[in-house]
Amino acid sequence: MTPRNVKLIFLREVRDQLRDRRTLFMVAVLPLLLYPALGIGMAQMLSTFAEQKRTVAIVGAADLPEPPLLDPRQPQQFRAHWFAIADDADKLRVITDTMLEESLPGGPTLEEAEFLQAALQHRSRVEQLGQLTRRRERLETPAPTAGPLPPDHQQELAQLRRQEDELKRELDAWFRTSPVQVLIVVPRGFRKQLDEITARLEAREPVDDLITAAPRPVILQNSADEKSVIAGRRVREAIRNWNQQVLAQRLEAARLPGSLPTAVDATGVDLAADSEISATLWSKMFPLLLVIMAVTGAFYPAIDLGAGEKERGTMETLLISPASRAEIVVGKFLTVVLFSLSTALLNLVSMGITSKYMLTMAAAGQLSKLGNVAAFPPLSALVWLVVLAVPLAALFGALSLALAMFARSSKEGQYYLTPLLLVTIGLAMFCISPAVEINPFFSVYPVVGPGLLLKSILLGQPQPHLWGYLGAVLLSSFGYAAIALWWAVEQFHSEEVLFREAERFELRAWLRHIFRDREPTPSFTEAGFCLLLILLLVFASWGFLSSRFTAAPSAAQLLKLQMVYLLVAIGTPPLLMAAMLTRSVQATLKLYWPGGRMLAAAVLLAIVIQPVSIELLASLAWFFPPLPEGVRQLFTSMRSEEVPGWLPLLAFAVAPAVCEELAFRGFILSGLERARNPWVPIILSSVAFGLTHMIPQQVFNATLLGVVIALLVLVSRSLLPGILFHFVFNGMQVGLERLGGDSLQEFAARTDQWLYRVETSPEGLTALRIEWPLLLPCAVASVLLVTWLIRSLPTRPGSPAAEALLASDAPPLTLQRSGT
User: Which residues contact 612 (CB under 8 A, 6 or more apart)?
Assistant: First the structure.
């Protein structure tokens, strides 16, 4: 690859994009004008916006005790003293039954007066509903030392619920059409009862009978009406603060300390400085905006440089230039990365300045408090923001360019933006969750790693704590970008992708083509559809199985569920698709006899690679999250004495070996073999094999072992070595689990821990650690065997399957019924 050619392609594409007014508008003009315009518009709206008043009706206002709940100067509203924000009092309009006899400005309208008259008639029913609700709540919340409810109390509770529901339905039919949003019913003689309780307290007389028998005000609202919910929340705030003042006056009259109701009055102290509050604000905004703007800034230029070139007919001009196809793709990639970075950083600058302005210029209320803490992040954090924007732009640039190369037209390319944007937004929202912090496992995730690292930097976490994650984040992100860029180069080398034209899709013709023009082995698309179907079945059954694993009454049932899951979700799709979509099930699933040498190599490789796998996972235990409880119970079921030894072997060795090999090294690998590069089917089938295991530890281990199994299958041109390797490897793990930690510990003690040792975690889980006298020869043997398989790998496994089978000297595997 010549840097000069890459530079020429890069400069050409940049000039073309800069001449496009739409691109300039999206990259520079829009972010610099959009956010300030939105900020100024929202500030103007906030300054001129007046929330519509909600109406609150009070029946029995004359029985309200002191201090006054309503404003004496303006009886149509609550006292502003009872609200945390004084302006909230102006957002509630109060009408009372006492206003029916008075002619005051702002009094009830004719409709409201009719409602107050009806409320006086329903007053007793509302009070009855309040009493039923209080009795039911007392029965539902017994004392902490009380046991379960006796049968008579349970019957009483059921009867109270029935009566309460009947009254609610009756009152709802009347209240839902009312002109008010909240109704407060004050019981008759409420002030007199409170005065009597206060007098008895002052005289040091018992008041239990009065408190138990005294009715309470009832606040009636409709939670299905948002206006009623908003008004009810404000009314409850005023009533709560007013109730505290009434209680304080009662205690003062009774010569009791005001702190009596709060026996444990803890003092809350907030240690956060203004700069820390500001950092929390930016740590939620900047990572989310950076990720979204990076992907949108990369996608539109990529569509123009990929599918747009096809539509304009300028792709041929590039192809006849001295630059190689890889150089052309790299030049386009650098252009997309440049515009992605520009879009993301300009949007961040514009959004940051606008947010600072809005928070500073907030008119009143709680927003004004944020204006003092909306300080910009320190310069070092902004530098790291730019640094972490580079790998994100590289990843999205390469991925967008690959999708744009694959698209037939600009319109089709824009369709690919929606799923990519949805996935990206989901990952970005995961990053800003307060419950998620960066750790070794998340640091290698695409998008998640840079997002969490940026959030930690903006929060001001100690730099030594983050330095260890920086290398992992940068290496993994650039690694994903390199894979996506390689995919784009592969797309650019394919004449079918570059010069295909848009075509109309007809379902009937497509189905007819699939079933009539069947090939000996599946296509690349059919292999991908099989993988998608398996993943959907795995995801659909994961939640169901997790709950069943936790609630299964016996270990045997856990193992049976495991076998049913493998048969239905993993084993059935490849068998059905091979029978329906291909002309040769035997060629598709590679049902051929491999010869004794390959079978022996499979067994030997499974044995020697087992200690290497165990030690590798044990060494990386700090990297992976803990196993879910359902998975732990599933593994524990293998050691249960109630389960015969053959059942775990069948569930964890035989069933996975057959079902998973039929799917991933059978149908899927056969379809992926059509790729130009022989390593494409190996890597893709192994990654697909790992993804179906869901658990991070198993995903990692299964992906590495999938490469070894794929090599065995491709070299032998038979599925049987893969099945045998899989069975022996899993069977050894089942045997180790059946032995248990005590037996392994006893044997390790006899050998002075010369071969291995058993470690116990704080959670009580045992783990094998392989010592060098056993690990070294196993590792050397594994490397030698894998190297031999790589050297024996055909240079082009993607040749047509029929020709490969004709050229193969492997005898077919004859399947006969037992007993015949």
Answer: 770, 775, 778, 779, 782
